[in-house]
Amino acid sequence: MQTLHFLLDGFLVALAPANLLWAAIGVLVGTAIGVLPGIGPALTVALLLPVTASLEPTAAFIMFGGIFYGAMYGGSTTSILLNTPGESGSIVTAIDGHAMARKGRGAQALATAAIGSFVAGTIATLALTFVAPAMVRFSLHFGPAEYFALMMVAFVTVTAVLGSSLPLGFASLLIGLALGLIGTDRQTGVARLTMGFPELLDGVGIVIVAVGLFAVGEALYQAARYRYETEEIYAIKGSFWMSREDWSRSWKPWLRGTLIGFPIGALPAGGSEIPTFLSYAVEKRFAKHPEEFGHGAIEAVAGPEAANNASAAGVLAPLLALGLPTSATAAIMLAAFQQYGLQPGPLLFESSPELVWGLIASLYVGNLFLLLLNLPLAGVWVKLLLIPRPWLYAGILTFATLGVYTINNSVFDLALLWIIGIGGFGMRLVGVPVAPCIVGLILGPMAEQHLRRALAISQGDISVFYNPFTHPLASGLLAVAIAALVIPMLMRLRKGAVA
């Protein structure tokens, strides 16, 4: 009952006219960005971090929530009509969604994606409403040792999942940890790695790193890969109305996709890629006509799209309750919290309940906006695909540069932005994922602080981290981190031995 009371208070915040406007703007911007190939929600939120610095935090996060949900849906439009996923969670949708478009059923594919996103988003947000407070109650048992162990879980899982190579993922994490060391040591007051620049005494700005890696680096990378070829866009034909057979073949995949997407999204190694692929496999297993998969099966669009949007709500659960990012977008959202001097976790629910519950309530509202706006405006989103790519990338670079400069009116910040952006471009060229770098930058100083506190309390006894009798939570979390590191390595070795 207390949770429902908080949620009702959240709706009072979310339904305020100004916040409704920010939710609508977030949904529109998120969908538009999700439609554009190669431009995902992480880049969008990173790009808007400098612009929203003057916004009130609740309004900013309501808009970010709309962007997150909108981009998850928007990626399906490009996947279906262009066979180019706008973000990683829409890769699976492209397989059968584009096949439906080639058969002239692109409208029905977009319809089942939109309705499935609404159904899954609503159910998953309802689950988020009750799961996040439960996580908060669980985290109240955490001390410095437990928080350090939790951050080790975050380091290992994000590094292992977000990237094709474990060594390259850890290289990105180490870069982030090194950037996090720059500045003045909080306990000793000694300057570290500032190289004589007084501008670095307060550390490297999280916003500068986020915009540099995700906006500048991504735009340079996409521009370098741009091919001067005409891409074939399949026009939307006919009505969006789904037939009775389409409805009967879609509603079960919507529910199954939701059940798959939310819990996996909430796991430290979740994200949106795993549940969408898993949903595709499950739907093929349950399908009456599995031979249609790969050739335009509507279940193969309905299930993965539902899993995609449900995982978005799942990602927010550990982020809000524990401060644990499980995807690239969650890492940027964590940077946004840091920008406002906020730390997600149990204290956030106590210190800023209007922000947390206003954000959760706005997800219900934004999800409804998605359904009401996206079907009528599908033709408008398709026209965005006609924007010349050089104009798009030039606009992103200009917007990122101006946004960072307006924070402090500092030329040093601009130089740092472009150094980091070019570094991000180089990381992408060699396949180094950038999300672990952001996680290392944000959580690294916090992990160092909790490590020092735990050792000070235990008077230097390192068993405080692994003794299952005195600190069972810390030892259990470290065991999870070790398992997340070792098990994939053993599986790869076994696969190589079998091959």
Automatic annotation (TrEMBL):
Domain DUF112 residues, every copy: 20-438
Entry-linked InterPro entries: DUF112_TM (IPR002823)
Transcription regulation as UniProt keyword: no
Transmembrane segments: 20-49, 61-82, 110-135, 147-180, 200-221, 315-337, 357-378, 390-408, 414-443, 464-491
Keywords in alphabetical order: Membrane, Transmembrane, Transmembrane helix
PANTHER family according to UniProt: TRICARBOXYLIC TRANSPORT PROTEIN
Protein name (record): Tripartite tricarboxylate transporter TctA
Organism: Ancylobacter defluvii
Native organism taxonomy: Bacteria, Pseudomonadati, Pseudomonadota, Alphaproteobacteria, Hyphomicrobiales
